[in-house]
Amino acid sequence: MNKIYLPTPAQRVAFIGLGTMGYPMAGHLQRAGHQVTVYNRSADKAARWSAEFGGRQAATPAAAAHDAHVVFSCVGNDDDLRSITVGSDGAFAAMQAGAIFVDHTTTSATVARELHAAAQERGLHFIDAPVSGGQVGAQNGVLTVMCGGAAAAITAITPVALAYAQAVTRIGDAGSGQLAKMVNQIAIAGLLQGLAEALHFGQTAGLNMPLVLDVISKGAARSWQMENRGKTMLAGEFDFGFAVDWMRKDLGLVLEQARHNGATLPVTAQVDQFYAEVQAMGGQRWDTSSLITRLKKS
Questions:
Q1: What pLDDT is attached to residue 2?
Q2: CB distance 46 to 75 below 8 Å
Q3: Among 9, 22, 95, 158, whose CB has the most other CB atoms within 10 angstroms?
Q4: What mean pLDDT value characterizes the chain?
Q5: Interatomic CA distance for residues 252 and 117, integer angstroms
Q6: What pLDDT, on a 0 to 100 scale, did the predictor assign at position 72?
């Protein structure tokens, strides 16, 4: 972590959920000078975080949140988010009026709007703030954050969130951050399938594909996925990054939303099924670039 932190007044903050993303994000907050209290379902992981970064550990989400100006979270899914906010020992009941809850989980827009309303009833603010940039982005503190919620609340948390982000942008009202993340995942899924097919074609044609990648990455085909995943895809290396299981969860949210708003997503639906094939091959925790494996087996 070589992040350079901008001078920001220290805040009392909580971070709930110390998974692949949350663990380094909370670490950046502590290293930026904030007073961080963490909660994780596995207490051992929270203890390890506290030993590494020096912050405090709490026994429940409510205990972590009770004196925090800002509460951040990054958990698994809609039900996990409900549990840590409005469930037994949830954060909302313990937060002080005016405090802000910022959720970085990729969830449905429905639960984001639901919890925005629940927070308002308690005099709190709720921001749906999914992120893009993956594990490396979290570790390096350069995530992109897409926010839905009140403009004033998002403005207030931005200096704090820049401890682990390079950009924090308000997309619109509650739920808008999650909808923007769905756009992001649709684009990534299509890009990765196209890249997988391109690499497979080139290998089958007997081309020097590392050389081809170097050439086309300087032209119109250039993308983050090509630059960061192209060579590892050629090498068959997938033990890192954003897992197939997580992408399928995200694409499930996308396709459910599309059924409600009438969007037609034929490529996304097809790629989702391709990821199901990768799961069946044992690739549940492989990086999402592992789409190429199903082509190589054919």
A1: 75
A2: no
A3: 95
A4: 97
A5: 24
A6: 99
Under the banding of pLDDT at 50, 70 and 90, the label for residue 215 is very high
What the block records as the tokens of 263 is 């969007």
Please give the CATH architecture assigned to the domain spanning 180-296: Orthogonal Bundle (1.10)
Confirm if 178 and 107 have CB atoms less than 8 A apart. Answer: yes
Task: Name every residue whose Cβ is closer than 8 Å to that of residue 143 and which is 6 or more positions away in sequence.
Answer: 25, 131, 132, 133, 137, 164, 165, 166
111 vs 182: CA distance, rounded Å = 14
What's the burial of 94, exposed, middle or buried (CB within 10 Å: 0-12/13-18/19+)?
A: buried
Half-sphere exposure of 216 (CA within 13 A, CB side): 17
| pTM, entire model | 0.95
Structural contact between residues 250 and 106, judged by C-beta atoms closer than 8 angstroms: yes
What is the percentage of the chain residues whose pLDDT exceeds 70?
99
Letter string b/e over residues 200-212, b meaning 16 or more CB atoms within 10 A of that residue's CB: bebbeeeeebeeb
Tokens matching residue 198: 């391109």
Q: Is 181 a catalytic residue?
A: yes
Give per-residue pLDDT as tens, 94-138. Answer: 999 999 999 999 999 999 999 999 999 999 999 999 999 999 999
Q: Indicate the DSSP class of residue 133.
A: S
CA dihedral in degrees (238, 244, 247, 249; nearest 10)?
Answer: -160
The pLDDT of residue 241 is 84
Tell me, yes or no, if the two domains 12-173 and 180-296 fold the same way: no
Q: Name residue 56's beta-bridge partners.
A: 37
Q: Pick from 85, 138, 93, 137: which is nearest to 115 by CA?
A: 85
User: Nearest 5 degrees, angle CA 64-CA 70-CA 71?
Assistant: 45
Domain borders along the chain are: 12-173, 180-296
Superfamily of domain 12-173: NAD(P)-binding Rossmann-like Domain (3.40.50.720)
pLDDT digits (tens, 9 = 90+) for 31-84: 999 999 999 999 999 999 999 999 999 999 999 999 999 999 999 999 999 999
